[in-house]
Amino acid sequence: MHMYNAWLPPPVAEETKREKEAFAGVVKSVKESYKPDDPESVYATLKWVSVIDLFIKAKSELSVEDVSAIVETGLDLFRISENKLYAQIRWGNILVKLLNKYRKKLSLKVGWKPLYDTLIHTHFTRNTGPEGWRIRQRHFGTVTSLVRSCRRFFPAGSAFEIWSEFRYLLENPWHNASFEGAGFVRLFLPTNLDNQDFFQHEWIKMCLEHWDSIPNCQFWNSQWSSVTARVIKSYSFIDWESFLPVLFNTYLNMFEVPVANGSGSYPYSVDVPRNTRFLFANRTVTPSKAIAKSIVYLLKPGGSAQKHFEKFVNLLEQYYHPSNGGRWTYSLERFLFHLVNAFQKRLQHEQLNKDGNEQPGLFLAKPDRVSFVSSVLKLIDRGQYSKTERLSETVAAATSILSYVEPSLVLPFLASRFHMALETVTATHQLKSAVISVAFCGRSLFLTTLLALPINSDYVGGSDSFSDLLMISLSNALLGMDANDPPKTLATMQLIGSLFSSMASLEDNMDEAAPFPSFSFSEWLDEFLCRLFSLLQHLEPSSVLNEDLRSPATSGTFLVEDGPYYYCMMEILLGRLSDSLYKQALKKISKFVTTNILPGAIAEVGLLCGACVHSNPREAVVHLVEPILASAISSLKGTPTTGFGGRGTTNIFQSSKAKPMLSPAVETSIEYQLKVLSVAISYGGPELLRYKEDFKEAIVSAFDSPSWKVNGAGDHVLRSLLGSLVHYYPIDQYKCVLHHPGATSLEEWIDMKDFSVDKPIMAPNWHVPTDEEIQFANELLKLHLETALDDLLKIIQSKIHSDPGNEKDHLKVTLLRVDSSLQGVLSCLPDFRPSHRNGVVGELDHLPFMIAGATGSRVGSTELRQKAASVIHETCVYLLKEKSDDSILLLLVIRIMDTLGNYGSSEYEEWSNQRQAWKLESTAIVEPPVNYIVSSYSKGKRRPRWALIDKAYMHNTWRSSQSSYHLFRTSGSMFPSDHVILLMDDLLNLSLHSYETVRALAAKYLLKTMKRWPSTISNIVLTLAENLRNSSSPENVVLGSCAVLSSQTVLKRLTTDAKALSAFLLGILSSSHHESLKAQKAISELFVKYNIHFAGVSRSIFTTPRKSRRRD
What we know:
Blueprint: H1 3-6, H2 10-15, H3 19-33, H4 49-57, H5 64-80, H6 85-101, H7 113-123, H8 133-150, H9 158-167, H10 177-188, H11 201-212, H12 218-234, H13 244-254, H14 274-279, H15 288-298, H16 305-316, H17 329-352, H18 366-383, H19 389-405, H20 407-423, H21 429-440, H22 442-451, H23 466-480, H24 486-502, H25 521-537, H26 558-561, H27 565-576, H28 579-595, H29 602-615, H30 617-636, H31 664-680, H32 692-704, H33 708-726, E1 729-731, E2 739-740, E3 743-747, E4 750-751, E5 765-767, H34 771-798, H35 804-825, E6 835-836, H36 862-882, H37 887-901, H38 905-922, E7 930-931, E8 936-937, E9 942-943, H39 945-962, H40 967-970, E10 974-975, H41 978-990, H42 996-1012, H43 1017-1029, H44 1035-1045, H45 1048-1053, H46 1058-1069, H47 1077-1093, H48 1100-1111
Antiparallel strand pairs: 1-5, 2-3, 4-9, 6-10, 7-8
Helix pairs in contact: 3-5, 4-6, 5-6, 6-8, 7-8, 9-10, 10-12, 11-12, 12-15, 13-16, 15-17, 16-18, 17-19, 18-19, 19-20, 19-21, 20-21, 21-24, 23-24, 24-27, 25-28, 27-29, 28-29, 28-30, 29-30, 29-31, 30-31, 30-32, 31-33, 32-33, 33-34, 33-35, 34-35, 34-36, 35-37, 36-37, 36-41, 37-41, 37-42, 38-39, ...
Pfam families: HEAT_PSME4_mid
InterPro entries: ARM-type_fold, Blm10_mid, PSME4
Keywords: Proteasome
């Protein structure tokens, strides 16, 4: 079982055991969907492709027999789908994923000729077919990817056949056919074990002669460098010594760098036919990956490759210098990245196979590693302070990897550069790069310090130890937090997070075995918090706050917008503090938060409080949540009220002039307190139950306020409180539970690929809602969802307001209460029951099972979701009739419809945002598989436990969004409930609204619902196509119709739906009567997009009407 699945919340992890059986059922359904006597039935199998992809992404434990069966079935379907490009794209893409994921477990043979015939028939003949160019481009990319994935499965003799097939094309280098020949050789030639007999000395010589036949052509170089790189890596028995001068000279020539006053480009480059460049996707940049891979695998003990590499580096290193940047910098940066990455992979392979059948005499020894690292350090030295941020980041990552290989060379170099950056006065930008480098190498510095390895101190220039370097970096980190220097501040926070991720705990009195035996963490913590508070007080939002209806509790400063470093730093720091230091920090943070109002740093202060609560909910709730909550309630008392918050009494003001107002100071204060509170309680869980009545009072009072800002702050509190009560989330995530065997003061990091379910101590603790939490959540739903729905009906049916302004405000607040309630529980509120073909409504408990996933415990009922849908439908009808020009109310209604109808979509958006943020932080907290400091070798990269728990949490969020998403797309007998149909009809009407913002948002959510329920697409296309045909359709209706019709969801459906296709085409052909320029432009763009993305049409749709008439 994959670690992420074993670490899921217990109720979800138990359900994953059913996925193997579910996948077997999918394989069976795919085979049953295709009928050998009906080639067009391949389209019936396409609905299962996304389901197979679902199991891959879910990392489910599948039977190898089932995987092998679906791969063989998929290959058969791909072969027989000739001229059906869309079908081949779908099956080809999923086959690539399956073959890549299970490549070491599958035992099958794949012929190369059918794949070649597909390429020739589709892309190298004049009969191009009717498909649009975008589909043809995707098809070529899919086929070439499939060929690359299948190469390892080509049978013995394939290499000889392929070379014989394309060799004649290479005979005349001045003919354009030679470029095609080189492209086909690169694409098809296998380098697997079955074909190793083909690659002999004579073939290498012939290959290099062909390569040398066309000079100064980057396309030609790319093809041959790729072929030779794969051969060099795969077959270590080949002797390349006699070819090394030619190879390195060619590699150097491929880096188009300027010499003297030259431009850096080939003076007389050879042009390649445009079609060839397009088909073989040649980039005009240097093939850095192939060159780096070749160099790394050419290195042999006692060979001359290292000497050639040193000369190579000596010539290129000057172009890494910041003053010598240019368009070649990207190629050089990629070269450094792939060079170190390939070197790491080679060392890992050698260590894991040193007891195997491979020749140990070819493995790199200590002198070889030292020589290689010494050469690469020259490139790192030049590129560390590059003006190109990507190169400086690559340098930091490369330094980190190499520090585990040869710490005696890399760490003294790192220390000298850090001291140099501290001492510089004019080049202050160097400090940021130096700090980031220490952040990336923090763990190797710790290990080297604690294990007392012998170090060459020539670089350091004294007796400074690495322990001193770590203490100096931590001390200077305090000075690095500056509101006026965001890059340096973020680098500093990254450094603190990286260093403390390695340490098991932070205590005031560290023992002698600790990395900082004489360091006072109590004093450092006090100074750190003082600096942090000063930073927060001087923050200013980097952009104008957007006070829309769903604005997040964020202030827009660089600490939040420019990466997750601030939040990760606070979580790690507070999670690793000892009890005494934590209480010391909590006391200071509590005093700061309760005595300051910082409207410009709402999110930052909230995240600070949230980190405290996450680390120790019991203590933090008392010292942070309770005083903030009490202060907010106190501030709200005595302020004017509207009665819209759910108390059951409504103050109806007869005149808009009598509407009460809050002073700006009071409004700002209350908004700040409530928004900080909303972020702070995200992980409070059962500790919040003691304040049940206070939370109810605060939320109701916030919704009762005449201030829209305060209403929005109450929305945040309600959402966050419901999520904290009913969602699954990890607790004690940042506590150390595994100590490093060689240094107990450090945490042992975890290799995900070496995971075993026999280590339960590593698994995270999850917040699983208690009965009391669920009961409280249901109380809140009754108060702010059910009651709000009743209020909505009263407003629109009984006309309780005589003043339009009061009615609008009441509607806004009531809709906001509904929205925040639904956003709080997300998919914990049961979904609608689907209806079946016979009209019977199905039960959710009896639906087919695909993958496990749940956001939290179930609250509320399906009936509550149904009631909400019915009331929101009536509200939408009322608003379109009475207040069609009020975009604020309409946007609120649309968002509620999305939450109601698109079950799980909010979780998917949350997962997508979290995944991007995690990627930013992950590179600095990686221990490579090869670690010569402690002689530790693993199958994969090691990461801190907290980071892997974070990934498991995100994996559960993704699973919860997908657990029921595909159920209704694959079943022909299940249809959306009547409530979903009502919501879709409303969204369809709103997607044709006169306001562009309303149209765009409604269309977005309508398309999401259509994608989940494909059976609804036909009727919607019929309606929208009729709008194009109708000469009286206003401009906004035409624009809205075109926006929906031009979506991929609709265009894909036209491939297999005759009714939708005919209506779509007739709508476009009959639309010339529209006089509006915008309407005609939208229709023209729709037609062009349809042509570009036209995927062909199934022949079966032309026979369907005839068959149906016979039945009649």
